[in-house]
Amino acid sequence: MSQIPSGPYPKGLTHSTSDPIRSIETFYVRPRWLFVRVETEKGIVGWGEATLEGHTEAVEGAFVELRERFVGWDSANIEDIWQTAYRARFYRGGPVLMSAISGLDIALWDIKGKTLGVPIWQLLGGKVRNRCKVYSWIGGDKPSDVLAEAQARKDEGFTAVKMNAVESLDWLDSPRALEGTIERVKQVKSIGLDVGLDFHGRVHRPLAKQLAKALEPYNPLFIEEPLLPGQQEEIKSLYGMTSVPIALGERLFTRQDVRPYFEAGCIDIVQPDVAHAGGISEVRRIASMAETYDIALAPHCPLGPIAFAACLQLGFTTPNFVICEMSWKMHYNTEAGGGHDLLTYISNPSVFSVHDGSVALLEGNGLGIEVDEARVREEDAKFREGSVEAWRNPVWRGPDGGIREWL
Ligand SMILES: [Mg+2]
């Protein structure tokens, strides 16, 4: 029987070829991303993304404890570190703690791939496809004329887009508020693109059933978050009213969180966010759970290049993967100022090229991207010195002053 290690944070499991974690750093970069850099004693650097939009400081607070605990642990023991970070504490789950674990987990997978000289998809069992289908965003937070944007994405190689279904809505709003949605879907479909509709949790029950019904003749790719998470019974009743696939999952953070939706039979597509739902390790497990319910995986990723690369690594090796979000020219990126977009912080952007609606197999070791560290450090320094402010969630109110759902 092995001896129980002493001290508050024993250095985990070790073996003869251990490469301990030397440092764990976090970097805030515009438009709204939190990157994680882990370096080992042998000098291998792995990158992760722990972006939790609007809550950067909270996630960085969670990293105080992760850094204290895991520096000195063998970087190769990803699962042991994941289990320790998740279970060896009284409080577990939730967006803040899970986003921090996500960033660390992704960086450790990057390190393992670089150490062994293979892409992450090789470590997860090898590829099951040569390309990953992706979709981009059009229309912004308050969609108006989407046709020009849809045409631009089509010209750039996309075959599918997503847009917000509606602007802000009251619990019960005029049915006229839905007419614009139908018109926009018709416009996008008219140029041959598939379109997913994100209800964004903005639509409450009285209008959600109307909108789902009204969209049905136009065959959207899916409707996303038709109601707020936590309402699986209400979503299930909606599920029975429409043939349009229902997607959900960006605000679920663990296997335990997705389980009631799977068991209720109220979704067709699960959308965990690799930067929020425990990283590559947990999203892989969620995908396997989903497969047993015949549910597809479509990673949520309105985030940065590290999260996107992690999603693609999963996509290349996950049988029930169908499509991944890609934040190229997303309104959050363009509205943040400074010209920062998906490709800003990587020096091999061609790996994300989109052709025929998909991205080709990432061949590089680890995540397959080269992070421009100098650029990341330069941008983070602006945040630390106060010349760049952290991104915050908009607060929406209706004409009567009452608060409305933004996200
Ligand atoms: Mg969404």
Number of strands: 15
By CATH, the topology of the domain at 121-369 is TIM Barrel
User: Could you tell me the radius of gyration in angstroms?
Assistant: 21 Å
Q: How far apart, in Å, are the first and last alpha carbons?
A: 51 Å
The DSSP helix count reads: 13
What is the average of the pLDDT values?
A: 91
Low-confidence stretches: none
Structural class: alpha/beta
Helix content: 25-40%
The CATH superfamily of the domain at 121-369 is identified as: Enolase-like C-terminal domain
Q: What is the 3D shape?
A: globular
Instruction: List bound small molecules.
Output: magnesium ion
Element string (H = helix, E = strand)? EEEHHHHEHEHEHEHEHEHEHEHEEHEE
At CATH's second level, what is the architecture of the domain at 121-369?
Answer: Alpha-Beta Barrel
Q: What is the strand content?
A: 5-15%
Main sheet specs: 10 strands, mixed
Output the CATH class name of the domain at 121-369.
Answer: Alpha Beta
Domain Mandelate racemase/muconate lactonizing enzyme C-terminal: 143-245
Protein name: Enolase C-terminal domain-like protein
Keywords: Lyase, Magnesium, Metal-binding
Organism: Mycena venus
How would you explain this protein's 3D organization?
- Helix 2 (78-87) runs antiparallel to helix 3 and helix 10 (279-292) runs parallel beside helix 11.
- Strand 5 (160-164), helix 6 (179-190) and strand 6 (194-198) form a beta-alpha-beta unit.
- The protein contains 13 helices and 15 strands.
- By secondary structure, the protein is an alpha/beta fold.
- The chain has a domain at 121-369: Alpha-Beta Barrel (TIM Barrel).
- Strands 4, 5, 6, 7, 8, 9, 10, 11, 12 and 13 form a 10-stranded mixed sheet that branches. A 3-stranded antiparallel sheet has the order 1-2-3.
- 36% of the residues lie in helices and 15% in strands.
- The model has no long low-confidence stretch (mean pLDDT 91).
- The N and C termini lie far apart (51 Å).
- Magnesium ion binds at residues 198, 200, 224-225, 250.
